[in-house]
Amino acid sequence: MASKYYVVWAGRETGIFTSWPQTKALVDGFAGARYKSFKTQAEAEAAFKGGQSKAGSARSASYKANSTASSTRSKPTSGASSQKSTSEHPDSDIDIYTDGGCEPNPGEAGSGLALYRQGELAELWYGLYHPMGTNNTAELNALHQALLMAKHYLQQGLGVHIHSDSQYAIKCISVWAYGWKANGWRRKTGEIANLSVIQEAHALYDSLKAKLKLSHVAAHVGIEGNELADRMSIYTLETKQAQFCRYQEPLDIPALLALRAG
């Protein structure tokens, strides 16, 4: 008897499966993938017969399945990683996706964030509009906000993983900043762009890095958290929201993904 049954409502193939690696291959990188794990075959069969409505009511069931069902996932490691994330699914108590948008670049800029608790979408944030910003600034601002939230949750003893699609932002605060700081916050080739937010974000990162996981995630490949953070950054440009504030509308994932992308 299988220890887990995986229902795939939307993926490269649909049905009920008993192998997590097989299920993962069917849904990873598949835009709009919907799946969930069940303890018994009867539950899985009933859920599969329920069709898309069952998947929709689970509110991003795919993320819950991955956070609870994969027996092969290793525990999050501390520190930053510049490698591309190989999984599109949250793997900690708190997973935070960040993104920045700018149209054109430089031009109107804003930041977005998607926060998951135990694999379920819990909050969306947007704001920090600037009429003449850059994409790099918007990415750094989003990452800074994520670090502020991470500090709060880490103090509660929860595991936190921040996912950013900006290699620039990640390296600024977790790699390059150490050299810049040792050199009096100067670089041989000239001034450091976005210095103020880099200094603040780096100080936060440095104080949290022993417990925090920070990694790069591929952009615009159908990863839900990344896509939602992107939608929030563009929503900022449309609302011109200067403060960073929580999105108050219902967290209807299909409707949110239908918003204009950056």
UniProtKB/TrEMBL annotation:
Enzyme Commission code: 3.1.26.4
The RNase H type-1 domain extends over 90-238
Gene Ontology MF: a single term: magnesium ion binding
GO biological process terms, semicolon-separated: DNA replication, removal of RNA primer
Q: List, alphabetically, the Pfam families matched.
A: Cauli_VI, RNase_H
Q: Which cofactor does it need?
A: Mg(2+)
> Keyword Protein transport on this protein?
no
Family of this protein? Belongs to the RNase H family.
Q: What is this protein called?
A: Ribonuclease H
